[in-house]
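pls design
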């Protein structure tokens, strides 16, 4: 076991305005969105990025599962060994506007190989510094473990697990 070394940071929040075709990222930047797709079980977003490590982002907000599944389209030389990146959090809709509150834990899915939980240290720091309460942390842990079990039971195929759960995601 290694010591907790994460720097405390507030819960990352984002806003997804379907009508305006914008996404306000965690740093407050308003990003133009190429495509939003609203389904009864979630919201799809596709947009360009000016991040140095990736040039395009696709995400599904899945409120009932408390997950956000993403594909990062990395720039050359910044590729990562991952197929899907999954944030654990709270996602809600208010009309045409959706909101996300990241609860620190992330899952890295390498289809057909494994699913890894990351940022446990960030969750611990968030609880010990009062950024989130114990009940929120417990829900985040339960959510992450349930997702890992489900994804693993489907051969570490996130999309297959989501289809079975009634959220048949599709990507560009």
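designed seq:
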């Amino acid at each position: 076991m290694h010591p907790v070394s994460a720097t405390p940071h507030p819960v990352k929040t984002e806003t997804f305005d379907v009508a305006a075709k914008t996404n306000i990222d965690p740093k407050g930047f308003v990003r133009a969105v190429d495509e939003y797709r609203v389904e009864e079980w979630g919201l799809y977003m596709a947009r360009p990025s000016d991040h140095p490590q990736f040039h395009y982002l696709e995400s599904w907000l899945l409120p009932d599962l408390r997950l956000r599944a993403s594909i990062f389209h990395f720039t050359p030389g910044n590729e990562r060994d991952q197929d899907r990146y999954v944030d654990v959090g709270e996602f809600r809709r208010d009309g045409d506007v959706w909101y996300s509150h990241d609860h620190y834990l992330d899952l890295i899915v390498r289809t057909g190989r494994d699913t890894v939980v990351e940022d446990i240290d960030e969750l611990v720091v968030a609880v010990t510094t009062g950024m989130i309460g114990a009940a929120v942390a417990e829900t985040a842990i339960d959510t992450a473990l349930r997702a890992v079990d489900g994804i693993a039971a489907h051969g570490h195929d996130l999309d297959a697990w989501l289809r079975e759960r009634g959220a048949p995601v599709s990507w560009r």
